[in-house]
């Protein structure tokens, strides 16, 4: 049997194949003959592995197939899409008869794939193919391990590209343009119009501030600064000014990544931020549990608070007195169902300068669209929405925002349109990209389009990802997956929608625009159960009734017979992907677990007649049938979706009081806010190994990973934990503390806000470099928007103009 050949990243599979063939020609031939024996088809990795000869798994062929994501079989050829590392793809064809191997381009591979679905289109030389890897001077990350750390590369790249007096001119131009309304910041555009003059002024000012007491307020030095052509914004004290002046001097003299980083974290360039979360219901009360809302609403409200806090600190530190403004722009829904979603402007709780701005969708005859519209159906409204919201934003802010951030496909498309119109920095957040949620949703787009309009959605995603100056991801896996599974963004590298468009290059995860900034949980709501003085004892009678009451009604069903047992807790929307029914089934089937702990789940509605969401209705019915099937009453309490976050925070803590655990059993979770909420409360947490939680939790250190596809193993893992806690009571405490430690190190909103504002500043400068090339790419994308996307959006029926129907799957 052949050994696995050791491979380096630079080795291509095609180059190594001849040697592998020499080693095991017989096995390879029989394997490829099996692949082609059933005619043309698309084979996924699992099928490829199944048909691999049993003895070949540790051969070179076994290695190649284990890295092959999928294969297009077109006898006598088999085309393989091989992924040997996150983000690194190679496409090859193997002739099943003579075993010749050839490397092919992504475009060739996609054409072959298309021919399985729409041969006519695949053969058409003029079918629409786009290649979005257009900015050739943009540096690229090289190592898969650096993916998601774009700012790091950028500061290195900037430090090398700004070296030398001639090359520093773009930085001078950028500084000359810095202003807030009529106030010029940092340097005067009349006095310091050359690099030499700027350097001289910096030297004078540095010498001057070094003689002052570090606490001397800027106001006392302002007139001297002004004489040298230096304006406000360097710092609030002599000490702070000295540092900023020093960082800039270092950059002008011999830039290095550290001074670049430091300088851009000080530049007064971001004051007003607009965040788009279009589809709604977006509000602060009673909206969680409405169709399409969930983590995104929670995330944005917390994000805004953290950004405002950080902006206030920065502005103060810069010695300025301007007020920041953050606007969350969403849809105004006249039929607001008891929420405030029909209110135009709503201040955001716990902030001083942030508001929700709601702008209505317009019907064809210019009326406000009254109904809620599913996020899958809103494309025809977005362009007009972008125009209308842009007008409102300018009116409210009285100036252009400095940064526009989109959320989800609709928000990102609107962010593209608005930032393009205003010429400001654009940031993108996806939370979840739908393409990876639905298998083969690209090649089978036609089958799903009437329901999901993926033709619009994926096109909009490609436009926004490519126009955006930076992309904020919550985890590495969101960008580039794991060793075995491609990431959400990575799956947009090369894909095709036969009959519509071939994205020969969509987006590369090695682009330095990708950055990981993980969210946190509001620590004033989700704090450790041990902080007795902060605990909300007044809520305990309500929580007691919710969890331990015996009454069964529309709010809760089931009851807990033995309250001495610890509680296994889970909370999520009642979607299939959240797999709450899976957890109930695992629990039902595991007697040991049932003996050790009670189960409390919060989610959805309890009566299928009260729900309008197809998926939720199915899940509600499934919950009832599982409770009956496994006779769970006495051991389970199922509580309907809870919208009071403050009480939910106390609920997590009350579960911790029972020395219980939180379980997040999702089939896939993009990030998983509940995971960090539970960990913030000191509740040991078991979470899915599919998606973000796998990264949040270090398995067996700060919590546990569970495989949602192996309920038996998962439920045994949970049972083992409770058994171990019985044997060693300190074990529970150790896991609780380790979870908290992980949160404080990596998952706080403060860390997030610092990173995001640094991105706003650094990418804001970056977009001014190599302007011509970037503009060319923008023009290409604008044309794509105009000629392609718009046509697609116009074909989507304006369902919002008819009465509301049951929503598509979430
Ligand atoms: N949530 C809630 N009540 C519920 C279910 C969920 O308040 O009945 C909150 C939960 O605390 C979390 C958010 O909704 O803050 C869900 O975010 P997550 O990332 O877990 O999932 P998503 O719904 O975004 O997919
Ligand atoms: C959307 C999701 O599906 C969750 O996984 C995330 O936690 C949430 O947004 C916030 O990012």
Explain the overall architecture.
With 810 residues, the protein is of the alpha/beta class. It folds into four domains: 13-104, Roll (Nuclear Transport Factor 2, Chain: A); 152-265, Up-down Bundle (Four Helix Bundle (Hemerythrin (Met), subunit A)); 272-520 and 754-795, Glycogen Phosphorylase B (Rossmann fold), CATH 3.40.50; 532-746, Rossmann fold, CATH 3.40.50.2000. Helices cover 43% and strands 15% of the residues. It has 28 helices and 25 strands. The strands form five sheets. Strands 11-12-10-9-13-14-15-18 form an eight-stranded mixed β-sheet, sandwiched between helices. Strands 19-22-21-20-23-24-25 form a seven-stranded mixed β-sheet, sandwiched between helices. Strands 1-2-3-4-5 form a five-stranded antiparallel β-sheet. Strand 13, helix 14 (408-422) and strand 14 form a beta-alpha-beta unit. Helix 12 crosses helix 27 (749-766), helix 13 crosses helix 14 and helix 25 (711-727) packs across helix 26 (729-746). The structure holds uridine-5'-diphosphate and 1,5-anhydro-D-arabino-hex-1-enitol. Uridine-5'-diphosphate is lined by residues 288-289, 294-295, 298, 571-573, 602-603, 641-643, 645, 648, 671-674, 677.
